[in-house]
Amino acid sequence: MGDRRIRVLQWLIGAAIIGFAVRSLARNWGELRAQPLEWSIEPGWILLSAVVVWLMYALLIAAWRRMLTAWGRGLDLWSAAHIWTVSSLGKYLPGKVWAVAGMAVMAQRAGIGAGPATGSAVILQLLAIGTGAAVVGLTGWGALRAAYPGAGSGLVVLLLISAVGMALLLWPPVVSRVLRVIAPDTTPVTPPAAAVAFGIVANAVAWVGYGVALWLLARGLLPSAGLGLLTATAVFTASYLAGFLALFAPGGIGVREGVFILMLQGPIGIGAATALAIASRLLLTLTELGAAVPFLLFPRRRVRGVS
Questions:
Q1: How far apart are alpha carbons 25 and 23 in whole angstroms?
Q2: In this predicted structure, what is the pLDDT of residue 202?
Q3: Pick from 224, 169, 214: nearest CA to 191
Q4: End-to-end alpha-carbon separation of the chain, Å?
Q5: Model pTM?
Q6: I want to staple 195 with a disulfide (CB 3.0 to 4.6 A). Which of 70, 77, 238, 240 is the partner?
């Protein structure tokens, strides 16, 4: 019954976000049609945006490999990249569990034990959520308070929750309990705090990198919008997390764009915010497919673990 209530609550929150975004578009439809979009297609900036995203993927793959190595088992670079990029496509299936489950299953097939395979995937997801919340709290302070004056107290709470969560994940007894919950049939082996700390740093840097990529994309498409770097980082991170936590929305479709528009319509206008939300979705989908397709087309060797 508890799980069902949580799912219903997630549906309601996601529907509310989409509803607010649609209402905002409807109320400002005249402005949206009248507001000219000064497109300026600059392929160099757009390509650089994609490259930054791929570099962040590489950083997160390195964090996952380090986590596995801390468990006493590792993956060669090709195999780790293969598993990470291909399993990430599972986020486009309803339920949100497929990406993590796919990573765990593929890692087990590569010779990684069930505990490390599942545990590393879940811990890094928790780190992504926690660091993302911190990044939103830090980078969104100015922009969100300017657009929504009452947001300051909420950001403070978000930062405190994130700090407590990260501290708990650095404490081995808490990590051990988490692993017992997610993999009850395996003997939990807690990764060293150094591996978890590296995961925290990698995820935080990745969120900032994604913000840089969005800023570059805006420069390549809508330079006149004047999107700031801190605002870009806050908007990307908050919208991505909202889409990720909306379990009913494959790939966060709808929810992510709703948060994106709601946060950016004040700073750059609803027309530019809507256009950039769509462009960001297209870029992210293309970078995810672009990262995975080479491993699907050219599986040059069997995915394998290393001792």
A1: 5
A2: 95
A3: 169
A4: 43
A5: 0.80
A6: 70
